[in-house]
């Protein structure tokens, strides 16, 4: 029976096959190709994303993959995507670029009083923001420029003549990216070893040279080593500085250091780092700490602008 049935079936199919029209064959071929492409596409999806723990296909399963919680930096500090024009991962802190300046300042810089520039250690704010500052200018690496640009970080650079005079073009490019120039003395002197006139020369000459070399006159001053006295505050004010800017946290040696006993960044912290060979590691430590604290890096120069009144919208 089986052999007879098989023969009948075979003969019948033979007849059917002869009836297949070219168009029908074309439809079958296209259908097979479509199935192959569909299976291939599903295979490329992330299966854990496709199915939840219950094995049910969630309605949002075809949305983009959840990005990894990472700064996008490799161990060597290079961006994982190797480029500066790639978009940030979705979980990166919002950029502080133009048009996306972040929360409006709710801080007003105290004025110069009795001839003394005010000292700013951190910013008293209710906004979830943090401030990066970068000092000295010893190492001019393209990597620093790329990272700052990639994260759209705009921040003051407190620069010394001794580091800027040989490579002003490097800092001009950073200024074109939105970085600003602060004063940090001519040769990184501990100002408390000098009298008023000596301190004034260090600060005023540095400001003059930065303006000549970089086209931007500083109006914020950071004393080298954080050491200052009354003469420093008076000399800074006399050189046109609106404030001495200190810091409340550091990115140093690839890790963060906090003052005031904090275990992490808090809103309003001013973070110090340097143009050093380990720039990428320090920068990554800062970005990670800002993310962990849920803080957005914003431009300290914007927050310390003169005569910036509070508006109803910013209260
Ligand atoms: Zn310094």
**What's the β-strand tally?**
10
User: Topology as H/E string?
Assistant: HHHEEHEHHEHEHEEEEHEH
What's the shape? globular
Q: Provide a count of the helices.
A: 10
Mean pLDDT across the residues is 77
CATH homologous superfamily label of the largest domain: Glycoside hydrolase/deacetylase
Architecture of the largest domain, according to CATH? Alpha-Beta Barrel
Structural class determined from secondary elements: alpha/beta
Which ions and ligands are bound to the chains? zinc ion
Helices, strands, pairings?
Elements (H helix, E strand, L loop, with lengths): L1 H18 L2 H23 L2 H4 L68 E2 L8 E8 L5 H9 L5 E4 L1 H4 L3 H9 L3 E4 L12 H19 L5 E2 L8 H9 L4 E3 L3 E4 L2 E4 L11 E5 L4 H15 L2 E3 L1 H4 L12
Parallel strand pairs: 1-6, 2-3, 2-9, 2-10, 3-4, 5-6, 7-9
Antiparallel strand pairs: 7-8
Helix pairs in contact: 7-8
Bound molecules: zinc ion.
Zinc ion binds next to strand 2.
Structure described in brief:
This protein is α/β, with parallel strands linked by helices.
Notable features of this structure?
TIM Barrel; 7-stranded mixed sheet; 10 helices; binds zinc ion
Explain what this protein looks like in three dimensions:
The protein has 10 helices and 10 strands. By secondary structure, it is an alpha/beta fold. The chain has 2 domains: 2-50; 119-314, Alpha-Beta Barrel (TIM Barrel), CATH 3.20.20. The protein is globular and about 95 Å long. Bound molecules: zinc ion.
């Amino acid at each position: 029976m089986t052999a007879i049935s098989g023969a009948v079936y075979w003969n019948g199919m033979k007849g059917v096959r002869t009836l297949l029209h070219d168009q029908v064959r074309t439809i079958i071929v296209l259908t097979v190709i479509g199935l192959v492409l569909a299976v291939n596409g599903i295979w490329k999806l992330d299966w854990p994303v496709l199915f939840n723990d219950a094995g049910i296909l969630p309605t949002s399963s075809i949305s983009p993959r959840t990005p990894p919680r990472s700064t996008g930096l490799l161990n060597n500090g290079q961006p994982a995507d190797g480029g500066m024009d790639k978009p940030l991962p979705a979980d990166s802190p919002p950029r502080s670029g133009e048009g996306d300046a972040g929360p409006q300042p709710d801080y007003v810089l105290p004025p110069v009083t009795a001839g003394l520039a005010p000292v700013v250690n951190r910013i008293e704010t209710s906004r979830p923001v943090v401030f990066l500052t970068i000092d000295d200018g010893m190492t001019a690496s393209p990597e620093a420029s790329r990272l700052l640009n990639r994260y759209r970080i705009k921040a003051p650079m407190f620069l010394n003549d001794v580091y800027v005079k040989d490579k002003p073009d490097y800092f001009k490019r950073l200024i074109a990216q939105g970085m600003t120039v602060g004063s940090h003395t001519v040769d990184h002197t501990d100002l408390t070893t000098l009298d008023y006139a000596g301190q004034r020369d260090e600060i005023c000459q540095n400001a003059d040279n930065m303006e000549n070399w970089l086209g931007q006159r500083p109006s914020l001053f950071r004393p080298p080593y954080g050491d200052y006295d009354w003469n420093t505050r008076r000399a800074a004010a006399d050189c046109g500085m609106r404030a001495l800017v200190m810091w409340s946290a550091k990115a140093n040696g690839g890790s963060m250091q906090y003052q005031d006993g904090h275990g992490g960044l808090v809103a309003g912290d001013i973070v110090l780092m340097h143009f050093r060979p380990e720039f990428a590691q320090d920068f990554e430590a800062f970005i990670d700490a800002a993310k962990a604290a849920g803080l957005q890096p914003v431009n300290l120069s914007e927050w310390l602008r003169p005569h910036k009144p509070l508006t109803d919208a910013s209260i």
